[in-house]
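can u do me a favor
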């Protein structure tokens, strides 16, 4: 359209966009025998009156790149703080997930928070923190630091579903 100076009607443009998005979506469905179900996720405080910390980590291999970030809100959903970071030479997603939990809890302590729930989506990192960590685990020191922060403050760590955010 742009390169040929052709003018399209709004209806034609919308139909082409819709057709293209459907083609992209169907190309990622494998053999086409199953249709993925959309699961819309909306932020809520679950009736918690304190602060809510949502954390997440990411990891891409070859070359190794890992990042992390968080959003801290009050119980009404108003933004209080946030951060993001990069982990050079990361060894995997678990390090990114544990690092973001650690940084988020540290920041909440620095801000004087006294009642907080931290939500994270990977169940493995939550289980390592809430349950016993295997002896001599590579991230044992980081996990113990997180456990110590949870023990001295009125903080808890809980699992949340990963999904498509609602606007």
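np, heres the sequence
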């Amino acid at each position: 359209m742009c390169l040929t100076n052709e003018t399209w009607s709004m209806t034609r443009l919308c139909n082409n966009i819709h057709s293209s998005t459907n083609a992209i979506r169907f190309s990622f469905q494998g053999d086409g025998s199953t249709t993925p179900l959309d699961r819309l996720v909306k932020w809520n405080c679950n009736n918690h009156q304190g602060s809510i910390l949502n954390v997440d980590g990411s990891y891409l291999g070859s070359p190794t790149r890992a990042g992390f970030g968080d959003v801290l809100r009050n119980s009404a959903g108003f933004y209080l703080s946030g951060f993001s970071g990069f982990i050079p030479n990361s060894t995997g997603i678990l390090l990114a997930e544990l690092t973001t939990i650690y940084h988020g809890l540290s920041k909440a302590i620095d801000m004087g928070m006294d009642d907080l729930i931290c939500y994270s989506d990977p169940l493995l990192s939550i289980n390592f923190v809430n349950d016993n960590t295997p002896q001599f685990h590579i991230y044992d020191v980081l996990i113990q630091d997180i456990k110590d922060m949870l023990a001295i403050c009125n903080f808890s760590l809980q699992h949340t579903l990963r999904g498509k955010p609602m606007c």
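The radius of gyration is 21 Å. hope that helps!!
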